[in-house]
Amino acid sequence: MKWLVSLLGAGLVMAALRDLFHTLWHPTRHGGLSRLIMTTLWSLARRLRARRRVVGLVGPLAMVTVVGMWAVVIILGWATIYWPHMPGAFTFAPGSSAAQQSALLDSVYLSLVMVATLGLGDIAPADGWLRLVSPFEALIGFALLTATVSWVLEIYPALTRRRVLAIRLALLQRSDPSGRQLDSTVGAALLESLATEVARVRIDFTQYAEAYYFHDGEDHSSLAATIGYAVALAERGQTARRADVRLTADLLAGALEDLATILDQRFLHTDGTPAEVFAAYAADHGRGLAQP
C-alpha cells in the first residue's frame, strides 16, 4: 500500500512535468492543464469585456496561475511520495519537534524545503532509495524556476513582434497607398516584408500559444483589429500589372492563410474561410476588423 501511494505521488510529479514540457518546449494543440487554465480565464474575461483592465490582466494572470499550479502539483506529488514512509525512513535533527508533527505535515514541509533548495537539514531521508531520489526534487525546483524565467523572457518578444506588425498595418491603413503606388518596386518590397512579419507571428502563435490570451491595448496596436487590412493589401497586389508585385502579394496571401489556419485550429474552431477566421479573431478580442 505504501508503494501505491508513492507511485501516485510520482504520477502527479510526472503530470506536472509533462504539462510544463508541452507548454514551454514542445507546444501542441492538444491542451493540458495549463491550456485549460488559460482558456478558462479568457472565457471569464470575455464576460467582463467592458472592464478593459480586467481583460488586460488575463495573460499575465494566466501565466502566474499556471506556474503556481505546476509548483503546487510538484510539491504535493513529492509530499505524497514521502508520506507513507514518514517518519520511519527519515532522520530528524536533535531537538527538532518535527517528529511530533503529523506525517502528512512533515511530508509537505520537506517537499517545500526540497523544491525551494533551502537544505535546512532538520529532516533528512535515511533509506537508501530516498537518499538517491529526493535530490531530484531540488533539481526539479531549480528547473521550474529557470523555466519560469525563460518563459517570461520569451513571451514578451513574441508579443512585441505581433504589436509591431499591428502598428505597421495601422499606419499603412492611415496612409492607404493607392493601386498605382503599390504597383511598383517599393510596393513589392512592402508586401514581401509584410509576408515575412505575418509568418513570424504565425510561428509565435505556434510556439507560444499563450500569447493569444494577451490583450493588445488600443486598436492600432491590436493585430486582431488590423489584420483585415493586410488581407486587403494582398488582394490589391494580386491585381497589379507587375509580376514581382503579384508574386509578393501571393506570398502575403499564403502567409495570411497559414496564420488563419493556426488561429482556427488552436483557438477559434470556426472551420471557416480566412476572412471568417480573422473576423472571429477580432470578435474574440473585442475588436472590429479593419476594412480597406
How would you spell out the order of helices and strands?
HHHHEHEHHHHHHH
What share of the residues lie within helices? over 70%
Total number of beta strands: 2
Strands of the widest sheet, in order across it, are: 1-2
pLDDT below 50 for ≥5 consecutive residues: which ranges?
A: none
Helix/strand-derived category reads mainly alpha
State mean pLDDT (0 to 100 scale): 87
Rg, Å, rounded: 26 Å
Tell me about the largest β-sheet.
2 strands, antiparallel
Shape: elongated
Give the tally of structural domains: 2
Count of helices? 12
Percent of residues in beta strands? under 5%
What distance separates the N and C termini? Answer: 68 Å
How would you sum up this structure, described in words?
The structure is a single chain. By secondary structure, the chain is an all-alpha fold. It folds into two domains: 132 residues, no CATH class; 130 residues. 71% of the residues lie in helices and 2% in strands. The chain is built from twelve helices and two strands. Strands 1-2 form a two-stranded antiparallel ribbon. Helix 2 packs antiparallel against helix 4. The N and C termini lie far apart (68 Å). The relative contact order is 0.10. One of its GO terms (biological process) is monoatomic ion transmembrane transport. Keywords: Ion channel, Ion transport, Membrane, Transmembrane, Transmembrane helix, Transport. This is Two pore domain potassium channel family protein. Pfam families: Ion_trans_2.
